[in-house]
Amino acid sequence: MSASETRQQIVEVADRLFYERGFEATSFADIAKQVGLSRGNFYYHFKTKDEILGAVIAQRRANTIALLEGWESDAASPAGRILSFVHMLIANRTRIMAHGCPVGTLCNELAKLDHAAGSQAAALFSVFREWLARQFAALGHAADADALALHLLMRSQGVAALATAFRDESFIRREVADMECWLKAQCRAASGRSRRSA
Predict the structure, then answer these.
(1) Hey, is 108 helix, strand or coil?
(2) Angle 127-17-173 from CA coordinates, rounded to 5°
(3) Which of 72, 105, 124, 142 lies at a CB distance of 3.0 to 4.6 Å from 137, suitable for a disulfide?
């Protein structure tokens, strides 16, 4: 395995462990053991856990951007793309019920630790926020696109937090159905506004 492949494996293992156990509770030894590296070989790739955290956040950002680009390609309409975001709660329900939202849990932990990387982690939410705002603007809600994006982000985070607490899949499905109805109402409002201005 090449050095770059080993480094990538370290980042992937650390990403999973930070999500499942938490950043603070995951040690260098935990990551090295799962990758199968000695401590000495591990330090060749990363000198500190904060370096690994930076690499994990960068990878999550790249993965998020790739996910959003995929939704752009797969759905022809802004409403369809927004639905892809909403349905992420269903697609990831098992992981969410077990560990929460990967972005939300990391942001919360780093905020409690007053960690310097907290703003980098929070920027992952900004990627979703800006993308959702573009979709709402394309839907016909240019004036309140950012507010609608924040509302949907807030709603999805609330669902993720309660789903982790209650481990209730039916709750997730009910909330997703309610968000679908809310989105339909936003589509109708935008359509009505467009007809009145025509």
Answers:
(1) helix
(2) 60
(3) 142
pTM, entire model? 0.93
Do residues 110 and 23 make contact, with C-beta atoms less than 8 angstroms apart?
yes
- Residue for token pair 């989105």: 183
What homologous superfamily does CATH list for 1-47?
Homeodomain-like (1.10.10.60)
Contact 163, 171 (CB under 8 A): yes
The CATH code belonging to domain 57-197 is 1.10.357.10
- pLDDT, tens digit only, all 198 positions of the chain: 788 899 999 999 999 999 999 999 999 899 999 999 887 788 889 999 999 999 999 999 999 999 999 999 999 999 999 999 999 999 999 999 999 999 999 999 999 999 999 999 999 999 999 999 999 999 999 999 999 999 999 999 999 999 999 999 999 999 999 999 999 999 999 887 666 655
Instruction: For residues 57 and 125, give the distance between their C-alpha atoms in angstroms, rounded to a whole number.
Output: 12
Please name the residues in contact with 52: beta carbons below 8 A apart, sequence gap of 6 or more.
10, 11, 14, 31, 46
**Amino acid at the residue 99:** H
